[in-house]
Records
---
Amino acid sequence: MNSLEKFIRNNRSLFNEDPPAGHFERFEQKMTRKPAKIVTLRRIISVAASIAILMLAGIVWLKPEKHDEVLVCENTSDMKICYLEKMDIVASQIEELVMDFDYWDRTEIMNEVQSIFEAVNSDFESELPEELPEDEMNEILSEYYRLNLQGLEMIFNIVYYIL
């Protein structure tokens, strides 16, 4: 028999007694009252979340659409070179922004940028089936390059708004 069972058996009469006067009222007050720390923490979190939502909405609203620039690459003779040039511009902007970051953060960000370039410079074109019509192949390649460019732009936006 454990100690809790012993305590209950030894003090059974105490459990049958009515609680002192005003006990239920005090208990109700304690149940409805929230600790000040929790209320303060909830307010801080809600304010921080509101600020984050407003900043995100501002970023999305103020970010200029670049669809016209991308269409220029689709109409060039060498789409890959056109996208790589645009990616180089964004990568150099990222590199300028991270100059003041500490060594590890700067290295991590630039490694991500480098991995995107390695993906674009891989031989992705040769992995496409030769049976694809040229317009479908160009559409797939355009989407592939555009998504990589958008990845770099996303890194740029994150780094820009961190500063």
---
Amino acid sequence: MNDFFSTYGVWTLIFLACFPRLTLLFGNFMFGGVWWWLGWIFAPHWLVAILSLPFYESNPVLVIIAWTIAFFLSIETGKSAHKRNKKNHEK
């Protein structure tokens, strides 16, 4: 069985949540082609959520939390970008 904690550990989980780009770059994760690098550059939390899918059977809560974080951070990033864009047009 493919268990996240036996493969990576708690510290990896904490660093993936706080510093996804650095952890993905320097951690022991698979590297992909163009799509992996585009995910790393533009949407690191979505990349973490996608990479969590193999652990669904052993740790479904972690996978659901990873997808929830990716979803809500995307919404929050969109809101802040919209505010920043609106503020720049008012000047």
---
Amino acid sequence: MVRAAAVTALFDRPGAREALRRAIRDRSPRVRRAALNAATRAGDREALELVVARLESNDEWPQVTLEALRFVSELCLDEAGEAVLAVVRRGIRPDAWAPDVDVAGVAADLAVRLGGETAEEVTAMGNRANTPESIHAAIERRRAEPRPCGEASSP
């Protein structure tokens, strides 16, 4: 908790970006989540590679993954599209962990908002027979009410 609080306090300090980026790889999910939140608030686009690693990790905590998705959404980083799709893929596995399914719904919504090939691919995933209804519904909801990434009410 102390390290997470320190990361939160550092987000806007000069010279703190490297410490925040190191914290995105911390062993504690609480610290990683705080670091991702700080990177989002700081608009640290250079942390994208670290954020992509969090999204692509099969062992990441759902709260950390959600914060990584928020980073991508807030900074409107369509170059993270493949990593966002990796989150969706985890949620549509037949043996998916329930929290991964929930997070995949948020990722699917973001994938549609990112547009382009990412939106096309997530739409195709949503149409598969094995896709959980919650993910399919998230895709259809966003397609019915499009809103570009970067606008309010993001993950």
---
Amino acid sequence: MRLNESKIDIAMQSYAKKWIKSTNQQRVSTTLGYFFVGLFILFWSSSITTFLGLDLKNGYGALFFVFIGISFTFITIYLNKLMAKIGLKRPIRSALFLSALIGPYTYLSTYNAWNLPVISHIAGFFASVLTFILCYILDTFLVSYLEKTDYPDA
């Protein structure tokens, strides 16, 4: 059964109207925190794969690496969408992601260097807070710059 040409045109016009209305909505766009999360996903996927004794060059190791990477990516996207639904703005989400990465790594590196757990926790905490503040300021500046230049993703 062939559809009538006018029904197809009406369907396309309604879809085009919905799409045009959706262009004014805020979109999730890439910023500093999201960039580093992508790099850390690759790092964690390869580290977990080699930690479990799988070789990245072999079939099972490569398959496990891809599975872990895709899983972490979907978890990150889900968390980002969840924070957006809660009402957190893009610069806050980006700063949260980046500070959640930097703090634990600062703690681990200072603990391995000094073997002082309390000082390492303090250093990791302050690194998280400082990273959050700097990333938030930078991303807020980028958002205000994009709004001044009438960029659609701001």
